[in-house]
Amino acid sequence: MNPPVSAPAAVELDGADLPAFCPNPRMPIWSSHPKVFLDPGKTGEARCPYCGTVYRLKPGSAPRGHH
Q1: 16 three-state secondary structure
Q2: Are the C-beta atoms of 5 and 50 separated by less than 8 Å?
Q3: Residue 50's CB: how many other CB atoms inside 10 A?
Q4: Who's near 45: CB < 8 A, 6+ residues apart?
Q5: What backbone phi and psi angles, to 5 degrees, belong to 57?
Q6: 3-40 pLDDT, tens per residue?
Q7: What string of H, E and C letters represents the secondary structure of 24-36?
Q8: How far lies 61's CA from each of 17, 40, 42, in Å?
């Protein structure tokens, strides 16, 4: 029996990291997919529709230029 596969940790973002997009610069080139922009501003979290990577605003972060 194989051990359960754990979900990858969410990518934490500061307000200065917005707009968020995936694939992000830290991802290996072999895992590339079309670039998509994500909006974690409303709920604090967004999921890439291609690879499922979760992007989450760090607690207390606000989008740049917003209060």
Answers
A1: helix
A2: no
A3: 14
A4: 10, 54, 55, 56, 57
A5: -70, 135
A6: 444 555 789 999 888 899 999 888 888 778 999 999 99
A7: CCCCCHHHCCCCE
A8: 10, 11, 12
